[in-house]
Amino acid sequence: MLTVEQIAPRRIIPVVVIEDYLLATPLRGALIGGGLQCAEITCRTSAAIEAITAMAEDPDFLVGAGTVTTADQVERVVRAGARFVVCPGLSAAVVRACADAGVTCVPGTVTATEVMRAVELGVTTVKFFPAETNGGLAAITALGGPFPDVRFVPTGGIRLSSLGTYLASQAVAAVGGTWLTPLEAQRSGDFASIERLVAEAMAVAEDAA
User: Fold this and answer.
1) For all residues of the chain together, what is the average pLDDT?
2) Domain spanning 4-202 has what CATH number?
3) Catalytic one among 5, 19, 40, 114?
C-alpha cells in the first residue's frame, strides 16, 4: 500500500468537492499545472464516483476518495479507481476493508483515544479533522507527545495563510484543504485560478521543506 509520503510527496492533498464529473479532467489538469499529482475526491456528491474514474484515467495521477464512512463505500471507490481512502472518523470496518482491498486508509481522529484505536488497527498516519475547530496545530503537537510514531494529516479550516505553520511541524505528514479547488472556480470554468492557488500552496511547501 502507498504511504502518505508517496501519495503527497509535496505534503499537500487537495480535498475536492466536485458537482459535475465532466469537470474532473480539466480540474486534474489544473492541479498538475500547479505542481500536484494527487487529489482526494470527497464522496459528498452524486458525481464523486464518476469523477474518481475520470481522474484515475491518468495512471501517474494518484486519486483518492474522501468522506468514506462505510465498508461498502470502500468497495465502490476502489472499483472506480481510488488508490487511497480518507475518512472523517475512525471505523474499524473501513480500515479493514481498505486493508483487504490493498489501499491506504487515513482515518479521522481528534482524541488520544481515537489515535490509540487507530494504532491498534495498524494505522500510523491519521487525519486530524476538523483541524481548526479542534485546536489546530497546538492539539496535534500535544497528541504527538504520547504518540511520537504517529503522523497527522490536518484538514478543515486550513488556508494558505496557516499552511506554512502546519507544514513546519514534524508531526504533520501532509495538509489537506478544500480552498485549492473552490466550487465557484469550478462552476465558472476558471481552472487558471485553481492552478494559481495550487502554485501558491506549492511555494509555501517549498519554503517549509
Assistant:
1) 97
2) 3.20.20.70
3) 40
